[in-house]
Amino acid sequence: MATNSVSQTKATVKSAAKLGVGTLMIMNIVAVVSLRGLPAEAVYGMSSAFYYLFAAIAFLIPVSLVAAELASLFPYQQGGMFRWVGEAFGSKLGFLGIWLQWIESTIWYPTVLTFGAVSLAFIGMDHLADSHLAANRFYTLAVVLVIYWLATLISLKGLGWVGKISKIGGMVGTIIPACLLVVCGVIFLACGGHSQMNFDGDFFPDFTNFDNVVLAASIFLFYAGMEMSGVHVRDIKNPTVNYPKAVFGGALVTVLIFVLGTYSLGVIIPAKDINLVQSLLVGFDNYMKSFHMEWFTPVIAIALAFGVLAGVLTWVAGPSKGIFAVGQAGYLPPFLQKTNKAGVQKNILLIQGLAVTLLSLLFVVMPSVQSFYQILSQLTVLLYLIAYLLMFASSIYLRYSMKNANRPFRIGRKGNGLLWIVSGVGFLGSLLAFVLSFFPPSQIAMGSTTVWYSVLFGGVALFVILPFIILACRKPSWVDPKSDFVPFHWQKDAASQARLKAAAEAYEASHPESADTPAS
User: Fold this and answer.
1) Is the Cβ–Cβ distance between 444 and 298 less than 8 Å?
2) Which end of the chain is more exposed for a tag (fewer CB within 10 A), N or C?
3) Could you tell me if residue 494 is inside a domain?
4) Domain limits at 92?
């Protein structure tokens, strides 16, 4: 019976598949890469490459490998993070995993959209006035909300629209500007320009300065999201082969963009003048001035803003789709299972939009746009890392609990040693980043430390407890009768055992003499 269900699901996937390797790889890059993060690492000069490579080894590569194995282990079952964690540790922790992935993306939207607002501020030709506008909290708040709700309206039109805009926006707003920034840096130096970065500086950072370690911990968030496309496995052509290809291709391009882009930014802006929110646009502006092409800065600003829209679209369509599929299986009330004519989870998107709007009001109480940006970024890191800790632990547990299951992509051909190394490194790296993310960085004026700790500790506690409250209120009527959510393997095993037990009891009831007969 289970075999027939899976076969039917495979047939459905083959007929409805929309995403190829190229499209999925670009969606992964757009979901992971945001040029807005370059200034945060450019202050470290040459040692920034160490942080990127360390985070890639301790986090990005383990995430990519583990996500590829888990996605190929369950290529035709919905749920993404929920499926992976739930198969290992039960539905409650599985729901916590997909919930955290969804809620952290909701908190993340205002931070990435802040960068979009700054980009739009630089479309004018008076860059001093543009800089003042970008620092205005009320301007930023207005633009954040406009861009987000525009992304929501596009998402309501369906995955086809999201895939097209994400692919175009990823090229125009992320990949091309990143390449352009690197090319500008090379041309600038080749023409005799003076580098603001000391290329003779140390590759290894000063580990005695704890503040450097704290701010650098946020780099883990730069690499977060490579597993997010796991919720699209039923929309991918030949997922067991194409998903790993898209993940690894995206991971390689991501590391190159971050390292080379950060160096190029450090070449044109002194470390002491770097602003986490504005410096990317200022860097492009400085390059354009040196090339006597000031008119091109607004073009770049518009392209970057379009890239932000594409990135937000990818995330709006991803985690919300995952938690919607889970909700239909009875984990969310019917109100959050409503869809529109395009089959899009409209009420989840609307609730998500309300949360983004409320979070964006923090602009009013934080001392600056930069401090708002940093505190929400840290909260996002903390919540996402909890989900990653669950994912890494699940990969090890499932290797033993489902040791005979087919794994088209497997970490290590024989034995489990390599998996322990990969998942162990990812788990410990995530745990280290989780602890460090609670400390406020001294490089940024955060205002009251009470607000900082209240938002972080209170936010983590609130968002971890909420899913368990929802589960405590769960009712059988929440299950959508049309849901084709595939049961966990342990649910099917339990059902089989229950049927065998019922059959044995029925047999004994109909043959009472057999129960009275002593064993020979």
Assistant:
1) no
2) C
3) no
4) 2-327+338-486
Task: Identify the bridge partners of residue 236 per DSSP, sorted by sequence position.
Answer: 19
Does a structural domain hold residue 520?
no
Q: What are phi and psi of 236, to 5 degrees?
A: -110, 140
CA distance 98 to 81: 5
For residue 139, is it within any domain?
yes
Q: Report the half-sphere exposure of 417 (CA within 13 A, side-chain side).
A: 3
Q: What is the distance of C-alpha 205 from the center of its chain? A: 27
- At residue 236, the 3 state secondary structure works out as strand
Considering its fold, how many domains does the chain have in total? 1
Measured in Å, how far apart are the chain's first and last C-alpha atoms?
37
Domain assignment present for residue 515? The answer is no
Q: Which of 62, 35, 36, 377 is nearest to 251 (CA)?
A: 62
What CATH number does residue 166 fall under? 1.20.1740.10
- As a dihedral over the C-alpha atoms of residue 80, residue 86, residue 87, residue 88, rounded to 10 degrees, the angle is 120
pLDDT values of the chain reduced to their tens digit, one per residue, 520 residues: 334 434 444 444 444 445 777 877 877 776 677 777 788 777 777 888 888 888 888 888 888 889 888 888 887 777 778 889 999 999 999 999 999 988 888 888 887 787 778 777 877 767 677 778 877 778 888 888 888 888 888 888 776 667 677 778 778 887 888 889 999 999 999 998 888 888 777 777 776 776 666 656 667 777 877 776 655 656 677 766 777 777 778 778 888 888 888 899 888 888 777 776 678 888 888 899 899 898 888 888 888 888 877 777 777 766 777 788 888 888 999 888 888 887 788 899 889 889 888 888 776 666 666 667 778 888 888 999 999 999 999 999 999 999 888 887 788 878 899 999 999 999 998 998 898 888 876 655 555 677 788 888 998 999 999 999 999 999 988 988 877 777 887 877 666 566 556 666 665 666 665 445 444 3
